[in-house]
Amino acid sequence: MSRPVPTTETRSTNKIRVLVAKLGLDGHDRGAKVVARILRDAGMEVIYTGLYKTPSQVVNAAIQEDVDVIGVSLLSGSHVPLFRELCKCLKQSNAEHIFVVAGGVIPEQDYDDLKECGVDVIIPQEARAELIVSTITAMVEARGRI
Q1: 3-state secondary structure string, the chain?
Q2: Which pLDDT band holds residue 11 (cuts at 50, 70, 90)?
Q3: What is the pLDDT of residues 14-59, one digit of tens each?
Q4: Residues 47, 45: Cα–Cα separation, whole Å
Q5: What is the per-residue burial (b if ≥16 Cβ within 10 Å, else e) of 103-129?
Q6: Order of strands, edge to edge, in the sheet holding 99-104?
Q7: Which of 51, 70, 74, 126 has the fewest CB atoms within 10 Å of its CB?
């Protein structure tokens, strides 16, 4: 899916910017914090939203922080409706240029539904740090942002 890139460059750095988020009532954030640290240690700028955010709160934060990627970790089992709403909010905000990465406990049978609603990449919970970093880096590089 081709997404337009904003024409105005407002950043002072060429670092990849990632917003790590927890949606809904999922109160388990250890994995999200580990991923945030992995990305930060790889040289990315990382913003962590904290727990219990709505899709619209996450999209608003992503726009305000001018991020390249929203990474959402979910363990609650409500990933399909939450990602649908997140992608809907991105579209309504004309922010479809922001990549969406899903992680956490997501059964493979739900991958097609997530990709159909706008999730760009699904990273399984057992993924190694190198895969997480290389996947995000490749997405952003393919767009020509870095």
Answers
A1: CCCCCCCCCCCCCCCCEEEEECECCCCCCHHHHHHHHHHHHCCCEEEECCCCECHHHHHHHHHHHCCCEEEEEECCCCHHHHHHHHHHHHHHCCCCCCEEEEEECCCHHHHHHHHHHCCCEEEECCCCHHHHHHHHHHHHHHHCCC
A2: low
A3: 899 999 999 999 888 999 999 999 999 999 999 999 999 999 999 9
A4: 7
A5: bbebeeebeeebbebbbbbbbeeeeee
A6: 45-48, 17-21, 69-74, 99-104, 121-124
A7: 126
